[in-house]
Specification:
Length: 364
């Protein structure tokens, strides 16, 4: 499909400090095609093809839209109702060869709205006949600038539903890899990504590192069905993998011993891989799960119960953490005491009380 821009007066639009000619127009829904490689929906499309046993090109737009509408993560029904009332407020960005650079979710919301009207035998809203769009000529785009447009359209905060974290991570990785393929060194590629996506260096590193972990998790699937199930888990629980990376693989809590890291990672994979039946019911359980490896009793309990006693182990590890906090307070108090030049009578009275309590608890 080619969208003719001859006769349309161009406008200059700024994308990350680069001016580009865009051709504002309006198109009927039938003249627009969805973006198959969109990082937001790529896993959804893959699950759909497996479920139907067909390639995406063999499925009708109605089948595809219905499937997407049934995935809560896309919140299609809410957007469709808004479009029915107010129309498409933000123009779609479309390359003149038909590639939809921004607006996939709006496109499917329009399709869903049209399907609902047809099923209820209601007239189509006029807004579906004139969908605002900015057309960009393919010849005006480099691969780098195209990725910048995707970042501009999908990362800058607005009223749209934010991309899930795993989709954001894949978009960042795609940009990073594209720059590396153009002989840009690691640090320069990171710096460029920071400018394009408007996020910190640490967040980009976290995205890339967490994505590596999720790829290992998906790659260990026993079969195709399990691989898809694991992709769904990653889509829904990406932040849990992020937490694992930061608690087990980075910072003070990182495991120096590869064998220990492998063992705790396998435990995490096994539990999170249970999907809806996982005993990991909250993000705050990830850190105590990781730290349990350093406690013989807690780890034995976790292994012997095959994760069923995770909540008990979490309570154990959190209690120990509180004890360590109290010990830190005592350590700070001792440091103050050693540095004190002279104590007031009131302070001496408090110290006698502390000594008495310590003796009672068998500490001295």
């Amino acid at each position: 499909m080619t969208i003719v821009t001859n006769g349309i007066k161009s406008q200059r639009k700024l994308f990350h400090n680069e001016w580009l000619d865009v051709y504002p127009t309006s198109l009927p829904l039938s003249a627009i095609e969805f973006w198959k490689e969109n990082n937001r929906t790529v896993f959804t499309f893959e699950r759909l093809q497996i479920e139907k046993g067909k390639k995406l090109d063999e499925l009708s737009i109605e089948e595809i839209t219905e499937f997407i509408a049934n995935q809560d993560i896309h919140k299609l029904d809410v957007l469709a109702k808004s479009i029915g009332r107010n129309g498409v407020q933000v123009p779609l960005i479309i390359r003149d060869d038909g590639k939809l650079l921004d607006g996939n979710r709006r496109y499917f919301a329009c399709q869903w709205l049209q399907m609902q009207c047809n099923r209820q035998k209601e007239p189509l809203p006029q807004t579906l006949l004139n969908i605002p769009a900015y057309i960009i000529r393919e010849n005006d785009l480099s691969s780098e600038l195209e990725l910048k447009i995707l970042a501009e359209a999908n990362f800058i905060p607005d009223l749209k539903v934010s991309w899930p974290l795993d989709a954001q991570a894949r978009a960042v990785e795609e940009f990073y890899q594209e720059r590396r393929q153009h002989d840009v060194d690691h640090e320069s590629a990171i710096a460029e990504a920071m400018g394009v996506f408007g996020i910190s260096r640490s967040r980009i590193i976290d995205f890339l590192d967490t994505l590596k972990l999720t790829k290992v998790f998906i790659g260990e699937a026993a079969d195709e069905a399990n691989r898809i199930a694991r992709r769904i888990i990653v889509e829904e629980k990406f932040v849990y993998f992020w937490e694992f990376v930061n608690k087990a693989m980075k910072g003070r809590g990182a495991f120096d011993n590869p064998a220990e890291l492998s063992e705790v990672r396998d435990m995490f994979f096994g539990l999170i891989g249970m999907g809806r039946d996982t005993p990991i019911t909250g993000l705050k359980q990830v850190e105590p799960l990781v730290q349990a490896k350093r406690d013989e009793t807690a780890w034995s309990m976790l292994k012997e119960s095959k994760g069923d006693k995770l909540s008990v182990v979490v309570s154990m590890m959190n209690e120990k953490k509180e004890v360590r906090k109290d010990e830190d307070k005592i350590r700070i108090f001792l440091a103050w005491l050693k540095g004190a030049e002279e104590l007031t009578p009131k302070a001496k009275s408090y110290l006698r009380e502390v000594a008495a309590l310590a003796a009672k608890k068998g500490q001295v």
